[in-house]
Amino acid sequence: MVLETQFPSFGEWIQEAAWVWTVRIGIFCLIALVIGFLFTGIRMGPKRSWAIVSRAVKNTFSDLIHLSFKRIFAIAILSFKEALRRKILIGFAIFIVILLFAGMFLDTRSPDPARLYINFIFWVNAALILLLALFISAFSIPNDFKYKTIYTLATKPVRAGEIILGRILGFTLMCSAMLLVMGVVSYGFVIRSVAHTHTLTADDLRYVDTTKEGERALEGKTSLVKEHRHEVYLPPEFLKNPTGKTVMTDVNQGHSHQVSIVGQGKDRQYQLSGVKNMFTARVPVYGKLRFRDTSGYDTEKGINVGDEWEYRSFIQGSSDAALIWQFKDIKPESFPDGLPIEMTLGVFRTHKGNIERGVMGVLAVRNPETGLMVEVCQFESVEFNTKRILVPRKIKPLYYDKKGKSSSVQVISCKTKLPNGTVVYDIPENKLNPAYAQPSASGDGLEFDLFQQPGSKSSVGRSLVSSDGRVEVWVSCEDPMQYFGAAAPDLYIRAYDEYFTINFIKGFFCIWLEMFLIIVYGVILSSFLSAPIAILGTLFIMVTGVFHQYVVKLANGMTEGGGVLESMYRLLRQDNMITELPDNILGDFIRMSDQAINYVIGFVGYMAPDLSQFANSEYVASGFNIPWNLISIDAMTTLAFFIPLFFIGYLCMKLREIAA
Amino acid sequence: MLSFNAQLELNMETEVIIETRNLTKTYRDFWGRQKVRALSALDLRIYRGEIFGLLGPNGSGKTTTTKLLLGLLFPSSGEALVFGNPADDVAKNERIGYLPEESYLYKFLNAEETLDFYGRLFRLPTNIRRQRVRDLIDMVGLGWAKKRQLKEYSKGMTRRIGLAQALINDPELIIMDEPTTGLDPIGCREMKDLILDLKRQGKTILMCSHLLADVQDVCDRIGILYQGELKEMGRVSDLLQIRDVTDIQTTKLPPEAEAEIRRVVERFGGQVKSYGAPSSTLEELFLKVVEEGKTHPGKRYQANESGDPNTLESAKED
After folding, report:
1. Which pTM value belongs to this model?
2. Which of A20, A487, A584, B294 has the most C-beta neighbours closer than 10 Å?
């Protein structure tokens, strides 16, 4: 899964975000007060203006303190009924129709059907519920004004804030109920759509010899179901005593099945379970990636092999170059059996080589405290094919020489060249202890433990995880003139698996947050705009939110080809993006205008939330757990937008002449 | 020393419920240019327990005044005070009931839901709210249609439920804008009876209307607005009294009494302007016919001996 930006921990994020938020809200309030004072001052003079603004501030506080939940709830129930009786359930009917016909368009031969179905279902749910939220929220208050029901409402002891909150709460309840039902149906749809089993009969299997002693295993293929079969291998030890045991088929279309044997002799039957390992929620532990160049120096980036997208950096094969991930907080109680590593490498071939096989690589583990590094395994890598490697708790080196020593064990330090030419080592060379790579005096031979044994003197210096829980995973390419590429998230330690159902709910919660923000925007904009304009405004916010990162880049003048006018100028003249603007009045005018436009774009960009950060369905589809960290950041972002938006809505309703 | 009731009556007459001081409203266009001055320097006081009628032709500023008092509009200058507080103070609405010119209600709710919703806005306890909803639906005679959505209601039914919502909080002050609009004569009469009943309960009522008969029937005091200015104000009885005419009504007299009466009037220097049976109002006639229709369901209109009832002449005679 591609993770272009690494998100910080919630603690780090909230410290910075809370400060930025407070400053911005403070500036916003100050500007509102100054505008209010100037506006009334021009009409009524400074003294009266001061009295009016002071009274307004006092009334605002009074209104906010006296907000009544009973009234808010009453308006919420009204909004709920309004949405219900205005046939909002048509949206649900559309959803069901889409699901009914979805099977016709979703390709069951997909290499990863779960991903396909989950992506589809999240897309449909998000699109439907956001459109629904947009329409019901933007019409409510304008309709109150259009049909003058607001007269009856506003002449009751209802505060402006209660109308706003009541509307938001009502529509949120309505849409939440719909999303809940749609979510349950979607979950059932995904599970049922991919659920299947195969049959396996004696005719499908044939005996193969496995050992010189004549022990025989069975192998074969299952029946064809949903456009695929699984290869089955039943080893001799399983066949000898199959009672209560199972073996797994191969992985095809992202899943496998358990095979068990029931009965004996002629009554023997092979039974296959339902799909296994298809719906996962892996909890990865990510490390920090750095690169080692061909000269053996550590760098932040590797080689660019010509990709415009600089997400992955590459290392050259058959050289000192390596991809190095450093992990921290690795504890024996979390990984008692070893480190389950999963990696998806980019492979760049400069020549075909042996096209039948992948590019060879070596995975090693190094202790950053002692410099001890042990090669764990060789592997064959195909472009973007996920490899699962378990770094066992006890590691035996790959190669031994005649004296029982190993060339795949070494004690090394890493070096970095600073810009001024100075070379810095992570472990000074005089502190490296080559004895750590020697066979153990205690008779352990050349076997290393990931973790230091508590109380065991012999394991000191022979563990691969440092005393403070750090460990490095090195990946290097063995084939000359071939390259491995990676970004930080491409290799991780699979700590454990969360429940898929909980992950699915988390994904829907992120849709719910988006939906809530759209409802808030719809209600707030409709408090001072007509319904069609409020819909357009909310749509504009949605689009800006989805392309938020691009908008911010545009506002900061970081897009190639310049700003709005400059791009238009280039289009008209058919200039390419790197041609300089003319150095005359026209060029100056375009540059200055673009700068002014960028300020406006920047302001709009800050008014819209970054909706792309809520689109976390890719986690669910890719089988990764959505971190609580990310959920918390999304929830706080929603709250951070909701508070000032509510305040704007309150002021708009309060200052609006209802019967004008 | 005044008795308790007398003291209460005195308080009711002197406590100001609504006060406007130099209240002015000018409507402006988007650019701030003056479009129309709807109300000009209105000074008004309405006391507790009275029924005050605002009269005036269409566009005279009656509805603007009520909207300013309710805080639905902001004054261009001057002040509007209700219960001594500025009109834009939301808390005053706890003690106010408002019946707008048309009943602006949520059409997707039924009668019960409507009253329950407005009752919730006043934070009435559940049992009191339910009781009040039942009572008001009975009062406006909509018990048979309480489960029907308001979009299925006739105009008269909508007015009735509108009235019920205005009374949901048992308000001290009721502001009614054209309360009899859309009602049939029976509904009008019931509405007027209800207004008088509310007055007996000590409520203060401000109603604005251009139907003079309605105002005359129920109001203690009236103000006449014309082109946004208050042209006349006072007690209805004082304003309507014709001081240079004496009106005597007796039971039916024989024809020979007329000469005798004329002689007596002339002896005192007067002049008899008209003599004969007084005519009733059309409203009174209508109510009488409907009442008789209820008591004698089989009775029908029959043409008299003079001929075809559909001719203009016979209709006039009838």
Report:
1. 0.85
2. A487
